[in-house]
Specification:
By secondary structure, this protein is mainly alpha-helical. The protein contains ten helices and no strands.
């Protein structure tokens, strides 16, 4: 099975698979979109001839791969954002029943009100399910698209660049092997854990009065 996945990472179909996975993991955070991006970047490093004696027949383009992942990330965010904006009172009541979602709603809403959310929106893209939460909350809070979209784009590009860099440089340093892929994936998970911790430790919104 691993060999089949590796072969797919070194084929033109990798762009479609990465785009679909990144687009859908806003709904299903367990999809291994980051792993696929890393594997494709590893294949690109192998194609450079510097990381492996075996050069794949097809070599993914690093820039195209990064833009593909980033664009799919933004599109997925916008789909959830738009759906949440139209969710109405039922979605608001569902959030109100969860203390965690209520706290996140207040924090993200306050950050977006200050000009788009900045670091919080970018951090959320790395944190497990953080991307889904931010897009959902931005929509239910009825934040303007022009406030949300630039930060979503920055978050998607940051995540895609980081993931591609992990796979590409990891393969150069450790060789285009499953060991390099595993180490890169662990680094991606570590960044996600760190982002989740920073989001939980973030200051609560100041209450008036």
């Amino acid at each position: 099975m691993l060999e089949s996945v590796g072969a797919l990472a070194a084929s033109p179909w990798i762009y479609a698979l990465v785009a679909l996975s990144v687009l859908l993991d806003v709904f299903l955070p367990l999809l291994p979109s980051g792993v696929l991006v890393i594997m494709a970047a590893t294949a690109a490093a192998a194609g450079s001839g510097a990381a492996s004696d075996h050069v794949p027949q097809y070599v993914p383009d690093i820039l195209a791969l990064t833009l593909c992942a980033a664009t799919a990330s933004v599109l997925g965010d916008l789909v959830v954002y738009r759906l949440a904006r139209r969710g109405g009172d039922r979605l608001d009541r569902a959030i109100a029943r969860s203390r965690r979602l209520t706290s996140a709603h207040e924090r993200v809403g306050a950050a977006l009100a200050r000009g788009g959310g900045g670091a919080l929106v970018v951090l959320a893209r790395f944190a497990p399910a953080g991307r889904s939460a931010v897009s959902l909350i931005a929509g239910t809070a009825h934040r303007r698209t022009r406030d949300f979209l630039p930060w979503s784009a920055l978050a998607g590009l940051s995540w895609a660049t980081y993931s591609v860099a992990l796979g590409y440089f990891g393969a150069h340093w450790l060789g285009a092997t499953w060991l390099a892929t595993g180490v890169s994936v662990l680094a991606l998970f570590a960044a996600g854990a760190g982002a989740g911790y920073l989001m939980r430790r973030g200051p609560s919104p100041t209450k008036a009065g």
